[in-house]
Design goal:
The complex is a heterodimer of chains A (256) and B (271).
Chain A: H1 2-32, H2 40-50, H3 55-79, H4 86-124, H5 127-133, H6 138-176, H7 181-191, H8 194-220, H9 225-255
Chain B: E1 25-34, E2 37-47, E3 52-57, H1 63-70, E4 78-83, E5 86-87, H2 93-99, E6 103-106, H3 118-129, H4 134-147, H5 163-175, E7 181-185, H6 193-210, E8 213-217, E9 230-235, E10 238-244, H7 245-249, H8 254-261
Parallel strand pairs in B: 3-8, 3-9, 6-7, 7-8
Antiparallel strand pairs in B: 1-2, 1-4, 4-5, 9-10
Helix pairs in contact in B: 3-4, 3-5, 4-5, 5-6
Amino acid sequence: MITFAETIGKRTLTAINRMGRMAIFLAGTIASLPFPPYQGRRIVKQVHFIGVRSLFVIVLTAMFTGMVLGLQGYHTLREVGSEGLLGSVVALSLIRELGPVLSALMVTGRAGSALTAEIGIMRIGEQIDSLESMGIDPVKFIVVPRLCAAILSVPLLTAIFDVVGILGGYLVGVKLLGVNAGVFFGGMEANVEWSDIANGFVKSVVFGLIIAWVCTFKGYFTGRGAEGVSQSTTSAVVLSSVMILVGDYFLTSVLL
Amino acid sequence: MSVQSWVCEPCAIDKLPVGDGKPAIRLVDLEKTLDGKKVLDGVNLDIPPKRITAILGLSGAGKSVMLKHMIGLIRPERGQVLVDGVDISRLSRKELYHARQRFGMLFQGGALFDSLTVYENVAFPLQEKTKLGEGEIRERVLSRLAQVGLEEARGKYPDELSGGMKRRVAFARAMVTDPEIILFDEPTTGLDPIIRNSVLNLICHSYHQHGFTMVMVSHDIPDIFQWCHYVVVLHGGKVVEAGPTAEVVVSVNPFVQQLIRGDITGAVHLM
């Protein structure tokens, strides 16, 4: 019984310790933002890596998400004779929830894992120590550009996801199932408010922060060797995804 | 047939200039525990200025940990790391970054940045830490690359280089800021004898050209005795022998003798 309690206590302390380290890591990164050297060129490079190179997967998933929403929404709404609301259902689902969440999950899978692996390899290859030995702050050099790039990229990708998703819903609802185009867009215009868009934007910014924070932290403090990097990469993807979904619930509660 | 031991003729120890005697780095009662194991246990050591000092010991003896303490990459639990009288283990991050401008360091695998070319790797510390213009940086980088014989490889990426070339690029990068002290973490490990000798030759010639204080973790026994001035032997987290090479070679310490001879039995039983 005592051993069991000890184990629980030890694990709890380890978890608290890890959370504390993560919080300190984030606070240190944010605190270094206002001070030079500014990493403009590196931020642009990371926007390209996190944003531009995620475009294909974002467009693809957005199109099919919108199409599924159009198909499911149409059949559900037809049962209650409200096919005219299809445009609003598709748009609100995407703008409020699916756009920010799915974009963030896609970015986590495509770019977040790569960030962790890249930084992890830098750690085990002593490149981070090498930066330190030159008197260069590795957090400023490695973490800050990725954090800024993720905060910039994820909202932009979310906006693209929303637009492409609505297009997918339109193609299925209007072109395939015969909902009137005017009704589809009219309902959307009537029911979607700026606050919905703002909520989606806030979520996507927070999710961008979560992805960069978790993935850079896991890479920066990776374990030893190739196994350590692979474990960090897996745990970065899992933790980011969980934090995005949990964060989504709390953000929705606050923003609604 | 045996592999020829390497001696850098122009660098025979007795021909080298004499330092001023004041230590470049002083370790005082240094203690460090990693993963529950005491890696450094009350280490006291003076690193002489403008000299080549070799740190020897078994694998896992704490040589690299000691080297990393010297540049503040690891902070001790107890003790001091004095560089010109300043305890760098107590400095703030900003002060430490400033203090590190006096150092260059060559890591075991080179630690080159994979996404940068050879030229960019060597230029990197100058671009990040100095206000030099592009022309001056270019001149300095090309001169250092010429010194290590890699001017032609300046457009290549690290994954296109051999192990020896990577070490030479890393050495050029360590030297490019004209530091006073250069630390080497096993600069020749894993290299074939010819490449190893070329790296050692390069280090020795650079020492003569620039008069750096050099500290080197090495396993190149007995070759290392031919060309370093001072030898430090670490065992069990403690310095068991330290002094001029000629004195350490004739040490009566059984571990030192076992290490020099490479015996598998003796003070330490490995089998």
